[in-house]
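Hello Y.,

Per our agreement to keep a running log of every chain we model this quarter, I'm adding this entry. I've kept the format consistent with earlier entries: sequence first, then predicted structure.
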Amino acid sequence: MSHACALPAARGLTPVLPVVAVVALLALPVAPGGEGGATLADAASGVVVLCCAVRLLRYRRRPLSRTAAVVLGLPVVGFAVAATGAATPGAAVAGFGRYLQIFVLVPAAVLLLVRDRRDLRLLVWSMVGLAAWQGALGVHQYATGTGASYTGRDIRAVGTFGPGDIMGMATVVSFGLVCAVGLALGFASVRQRVWAGVCALLLVMPLAVSFSRGAWIATALACGAQLVLAGLRRAVKAGAVVAAVAVILVGGFGVGSTLLEQRLSSIGRVADAPDQSVTDRYTMWAAATDMWRERPLTGVGLKGFPDHRDGHASLALSSGSDTEGASAAYRKQPLLSPHNMYLLVLSEQGLIGLLTLAGSWLALLVLGLRRLLRARGANDPGLDCALVACGLLVWQLIDFVYADIGGPSTVLSAVCFGLTAWWALASPDPAVAEQAPVSPGPAVAEEAPAR
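Predicted structure for the entry above:
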């Protein structure tokens, strides 16, 4: 009898487990010198797409609604046009495949494999768990001086990603913190809200010692947006708790107070007295803009920024950034992108690419917010799913001002786009759907509120 009960439960979890496996594989260390290449998580994301395709063929269902197909498929137009302008066929294939993976195929597969809120929460909690693991390693690196080099000391928290992907741990921890805040602000069980709140508070420390200004800004704004969307009363309570924890950590125990104060104050000085990293970023932004002016509609082609960089950058650009620490030897890492996703797309894909890609993101945001407001007005227990989905998208859109795709953590961004797509595009509407029998196909079914 127990085996008979266990089999349906296992079948119910099967569709989303490959996506959870992608998240879990990001807990493994990055091979030294392997930065920029394909990882196990990237390979697993391919398996996710394959599993989704097999299920579609097996159950012979229409994969996506018309709206979902348009929203997720729109960027393909820009990718295809930019691929025709690539310098070599190899660059065209590599660039087209990477953009298709991150912004179309993996998000669509996640949308189809996540069937209901239970699946979504399982995936979200796996991201919180990954953030806790990477964050714990990062805090240990900071405390023991075994992290990446920062101001001449090996104290920068990078988790398992190493100094070659300095933003990897900060990105993962930021995603986990945004997920935890969304889970804590919903109308779900008290147990979930309490554990999620504890996780969110614990993740503040590793995010702080990542010394990533872009991640700080994106996380603060995304969590602030979640608080506002959850309601004024909850926003005030949560803001008071966060302020108290910040005072205790930094003011009471002096956790990195001097270094954090210097890093925070540097945000306001980037225009007046920028350091070399900021100067390099401004220089590459100017180079990307110059490339776009040269070819405004189609850009210089996929993977074309490195080849055209020196011809458009000023002499203020350094030869690369210095990386060392975290069990890695010193190396000069070349600057191959403008560290701004919008300018990278604009320079390589032109206005066609930027409008199609940003248009897809904007549609996801509008549709997601509309369903969120509907769920909040109805006191729907799925509000936590809505806050997580919209919070992750807001974080990503803000972070893209300071970063672009690249590194092992990029595949997690694809999963986040898929989570947002499920909330914004799943049919029936996840904000109002009633209990329905579990279908073996990829159609989305919603669970009834727990009593």
